[in-house]
């Protein structure tokens, strides 16, 4: 008889950058499996409260919001401490927050570079550093970093993003080795293109700018790198996350799951 558990009842999770897009979907997925969740991110206060209350009502769990700015280490540490104050533990940390800017290296704004490295990479360090003492006391924890196909391969004009995501992959491996005997795992998920609200808004504009149809934008521009020519879905990413935080993923450590339609197989 299998002893694998996927029930997260009683566990506590933080998902950074979870007021929209991938992060919101991942917070919802964890809650749907019984975890109490701390959501975090920017946005309209009423919209954030609607999301928080909606997750709690749909899944019958406790959901809190913490407004930590991923540029500020003290606020990140307070977010982790908040989880322990509210629930007495922290079982899952998903580092999801991220931003993007596209430009050639010699034209790349230095403030954009600094912000991308800080939010996409350095915040992962600060959140993990704050979470580890709690997880070590518990003798169990799961840290999952949202990397990217760009953590494994590069594309032009995305130097800061690619550098940050490669850094996330290196950090993931290093942390996994440090805590391997303490019941804690650290892994990454590497998505290809996901049809987030931000991407959806770009399709029409790109079609007009290039004089092509929206279908051609999706197939020949956005999904040119993905052999399946299909967007990665939230549910597909949630499946990877739930595996990594469950008992089934207990011996997956310092590794990653690519959910990219075959992009990095080429």
TrEMBL record:
Q: Which InterPro entries match?
A: 3-OHbutyrate_DH (IPR011294), NAD(P)-bd_dom_sf (IPR036291), Sc_DH/Rdtase_CS (IPR020904), SDR (IPR050259), SDR_fam (IPR002347)
Signal peptide residues on this chain, from the entry's feature table:
none
Q: Which SUPFAM superfamilies match?
A: NAD(P)-binding Rossmann-fold domains (SSF51735)
Q: Name one GO molecular function term.
A: 3-hydroxybutyrate dehydrogenase activity
Q: Which Pfam families match?
A: adh_short
In the record, biological process GO terms are: monocarboxylic acid metabolic process
Give the family per the record: Belongs to the short-chain dehydrogenases/reductases (SDR) family.
> Know the name of this protein?
3-hydroxybutyrate dehydrogenase
Natural source organism: Maricaulis virginensis
